[in-house]
Amino acid sequence: MELGGDDVLLERVLRVYKPHCRYLTSATVSVKGDPADEGGQASVHGRLHIPESCYIDDTGHFNAVEFNICFNQMVYFVLAKSIKERAIRAFADWTVDDFWERQLPDMFIVDFHSSFREHMRGRGSGFWGELDVVDVFQRDWGNGPLLFLQTVCRFGETERAACHGKVLLALKA
User: Fold this and answer.
1) Nearest alpha-carbon partner for 29 in 75, 96, 89, 95
2) What is the distance between the alpha carbons of residues 155 and 15, in angstroms, rounded to a whole number?
3) Which of 62, 69, 73, 78 has a 20 to 30 Å separation from 13 between CA atoms?
């Protein structure tokens, strides 16, 4: 099911970033089943642009810090859009206002792996990114219930991905 894009929602999702760090310029979301079910996933395809590094002199290549920032922006958007459209069962009780309240304090990366296979500049005309939420599950390890999202993502300037990663995200339920 194509949920499409939402420029107003994207602008609101990126509001937590300083203006020069808003790398995700457009995004569309699609959902195939529910990520909690085998084979289900929620996906975002985006265009990104990094005009200049926000933290260091130009390294000349897309790096792990930029990968992480781009991942964050894409996962925030796929979650906000999925919550707005009621597309993922695990978030059935959430409203978009709940997402805004929890976006920064209640979402955190538990495990992060990135792999760079080809040189990628990340500047100039921009690049593409794709992120899939491939599993959603809940656990309580004594500090209250947490929702976990297993994600895979990739970025590239050509048809082939130059880098990819797997990220486990936790959210306070």
Assistant:
1) 75
2) 23
3) 62
Could you give the CA distance from residue 11 to residue 25 in angstroms, rounded to a whole number?
Answer: 9
Domain count, the chain: 1
Total-model pTM: 0.94
Q: Are strands 107-116 and 41-48 parallel, antiparallel or unpaired?
A: unpaired
171 vs 13, 140, 151, CA distance in Å?
A: 16, 11, 13
- Contacts of residue 79, Cβ cutoff 8 Å, sequence gap at least 6: 91, 99, 149
pLDDT tens-digit readout, 63-106: 899 999 999 999 999 999 999 999 999 999 999 999 999 999 99
Strand partners, 36: none
Sheet containing strand 163-172, edge to edge, reads 2-4, 24-32, 41-48, 127-140, 145-156, 163-172, 107-116
Domain of residue 35, CATH code: 3.10.129.30
Q: How many residues does the chain have?
A: 173
